Amino acid sequence: DSGVTQTPKHLITATGQRVTLRCSPRSGDLSVYWYQQSLDQGLQFLIHYYNGEERAKGNILERFSAQQFPDLHSELNLSSLELGDSALYFCASSPRGWGEQYFGPGTRLTVT
Amino acid sequence: SQKIEQNSEALNIQEGKTATLTCNYTNYSPAYLQWYRQDPGRGPVFLLLIRENEKEKRKERLKVTFDTTLKQSLFHITASQPADSATYLCALSPYNNNDMRFGAGTRLTVKP
Asked: Are B71 and B94 a contacting pair, CB within 8 Å?
């Protein structure tokens, strides 16, 4: 158990809908990262927050957005969902803005 | 464009032997490189981090080397066990970890 929690574990929704994925980092970790993992794309970096501020964006679509709250938990919002958004979404945390990351168990999103 | 290649999709070895996994990269100057283990349907688990000015790092049965001239890292598991069977991912990042890029992974199977 990494200490990172993600909810929900599974999510099934229809195209065009909007969902919110939630992540609680390990106690004391200031950085939160979001990744998408699909069979054909591997693990793709989406976005990084450090102590409430956005640090970097990777391959994140404009339909996706995220934020990190004062208590350091983070939410990833996915809107206008498409079939291709079906994937595992991982959150990771780290104590600093660099270095090893601790991944949560992931949220499996299925868009039908 | 930046590329990270892990030597093969799958590697099968006999229990007790040393597994050697390769990570090559192009068009990238990482500050450090990390190796993660991922089991099916679960989040990656951090194993080792090596900085650009380090040649080798060890942790128990694990050893990683980093050659910035060859743009290559080797990951060794000595005295391999069936429990080591998993997918191993290499990841490269700049100093501030803003954009950590993962390889596609190598699926290791250790046969008893």
From this structure: no
Looking at residue A47, its amino acid is I
- DSSP lists the bridge partners of residue A65 as A77
- Give the helix ranges, DSSP H, for B1-112: none
Query: Is B101 within 8 Å of A92 when comparing Cβ atoms?
Result: no
On the 0-12 / 13-18 / 19+ scale of CB atoms within 10 A, B70 is: exposed
Mean pLDDT on A5-22: 98
Which tokens sit at A17?
A: 């809908």
Do residue B31 and residue A98 have CB atoms under 8 angstroms apart? yes
Q: Render pLDDT for A48-89 as a digit per residue (tens, 0 to 9).
A: 999 999 998 998 999 999 999 999 999 999 999 999 999 999
Q: Is B34 on the interface with A (CB under 8 A)?
A: yes
| Beta carbons of A26 and A72 less than 8 angstroms apart | no
